[in-house]
Task: inverse folding
């Protein structure tokens, strides 16, 4: 009789694991047990419907910058199944890919359904059984299987990890990552839709900082810089109920350079009004808002009328403008979970549980998560591939 593997969770990692396991060991009987009526739901809505399925990693020199949690383990596992391997895997399996200028990788079809279709086709071809509306929350339900892979994804509450904790697995309390922040500043909200290409954002209470495009929304701040900061500071922000001071650098220049540029304006544009002459090339609406924020009524003066204190205040607002965040913004972004089954609970080479033999983990259920850019799916492909190889190896013994 053939050996049987149960894959718990029909998402990205679950399908990747099941298909690879069948390729490595065609005689293995593989069943995916999915809680909801629909498989691959997150893949289908990922990347704004286009599925940013991986990244070339060509702009990544330090994995900890893109994986705040799990970078050490992934560094090791990428030697077994790298982003390049993932790229080649998809192309080999009938999903042509394309690389954007920002190094993000998407299906050439620019449609997440192409990825869903690829997995569905392969699962059918390899006779992977898929049981939907099948929730698993106890190992007892899995007594008929020789191997079990847990690929249940991120979990917004620790409750969903209870059954895994009950059999000894250490769990890092789950909290959200990759979200926007609300800021209660009406004047800022008026700038909704404005994008600052080269901003920097910091949580001054920590050493955390992120650079990149910043988007002003009708509730506060968003865009790649904020999402990245929310990932780096996911736990600290949760600990403070998402109420922390947030510092914004509106220009990609040092304090000294900004101060020098303002002083030059005092000489060059002495007779012009501050509000009509914007020496740093900021968008006019933003410049007016920041000048007003720094100087109030005095922002209507001429450059020559500004004193040393005014220039210092303006410099400070441009490079280190501080707001108080009021919470996480309404859920609109990509969203992943920081936390999950602790990496201490698994073998770093096989991803087998250290507590329950023949039980393996892959995907976001583990305490691994990345910033936006295809990094989260890559973590799912790599861990799923490694878990599949480990099961295939163990089955041969
Ligand atoms: C809106 C959105 C857009 C995203 N876009 C991108 C992107 O473009 N690029 C990127 O890299 N990442 C993206 N992500 C993140 C990415 O989707 C996840 O990191 C990835 O899906 C994780 O894969 P997974 O298989 O571990 O979990 P999932 O894909 O979440 O799959 C887990 C599956 O397990 C099932 N399950 C859970 N518990 C049980 C149980 N007890 N029994 C049975 N089944 C269970 C769930 O229903 C689910 O189907 C996005 C996330 C969101 C929310």
Result:
């Amino acid at each position: 009789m053939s050996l049987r593997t149960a894959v718990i969770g029909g998402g990205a990692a679950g399908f990747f694991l099941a298909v690879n396991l069948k390729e490595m060991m065609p005689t293995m009987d593989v069943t995916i047990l999915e809680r909801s009526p629909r498989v691959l739901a997150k893949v289908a809505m990922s990347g704004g419907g286009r599925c940013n399925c991986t990244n070339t990693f060509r702009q990544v020199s330090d994995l900890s910058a893109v994986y705040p949690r799990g970078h050490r383990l992934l560094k090791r596992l990428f030697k077994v199944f790298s982003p390049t391997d993932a790229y080649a895997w998809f192309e080999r399996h009938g999903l042509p890919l394309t690389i954007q200028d920002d190094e993000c990788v998407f299906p050439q079809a620019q449609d997440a359904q192409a990825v869903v279709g690829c997995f569905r086709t392969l699962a059918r071809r390899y006779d992977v059984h898929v049981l939907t509306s099948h929730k698993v929350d106890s190992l007892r339900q899995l007594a008929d299987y020789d191997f079990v892979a847990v690929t249940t994804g991120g979990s917004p509450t620790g409750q969903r990890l209870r059954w895994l904790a009950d059999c000894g697995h250490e769990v890092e309390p789950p909290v959200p990552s990759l979200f926007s922040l609300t800021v209660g500043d009406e004047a800022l909200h008026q700038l909704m839709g404005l994008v600052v290409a080269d901003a920097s954002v910091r949580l001054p209470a920590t050493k955390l900082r992120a650079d990149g495009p910043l988007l002003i929304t009708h509730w506060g701040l968003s865009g790649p810089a904020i999402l990245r900061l929310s990932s780096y500071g996911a736990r600290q922000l949760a600990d403070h109920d998402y109420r922390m001071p947030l510092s914004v650098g509106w220009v990609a220049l040092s304090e000294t350079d900004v101060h020098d540029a303002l002083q030059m304006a005092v000489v060059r544009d002495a007779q012009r009004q501050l509000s009509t002459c914007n020496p740093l090339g900021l968008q006019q609406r933003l410049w007016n808002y920041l000048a007003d924020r720094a100087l109030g009524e005095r922002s209507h003066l001429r450059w020559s009328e500004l004193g040393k204190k005014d220039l210092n205040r303006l410099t400070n607002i441009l490079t280190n403008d501080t707001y108080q965040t009021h919470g996480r913004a309404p859920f609109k972004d990509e969203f992943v979970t920081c936390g999950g089954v602790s990496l201490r609970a698994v073998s770093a080479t096989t991803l087998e549980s250290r507590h329950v033999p023949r039980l393996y983990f892959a995907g976001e259920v583990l305490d691994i998560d990345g910033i936006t850019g295809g990094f989260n799916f890559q973590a799912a492909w790599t861990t799923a591939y490694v878990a599949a190889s480990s099961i295939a190896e163990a089955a041969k013994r």
User: Anything to note?
Assistant: Residues 8-14, 33-36, 41-42, 45-47, 51-52, 135-137, 151-153, 334-336, 363-365, 374-377, 380 surround flavin-adenine dinucleotide (CB under 6 Å).
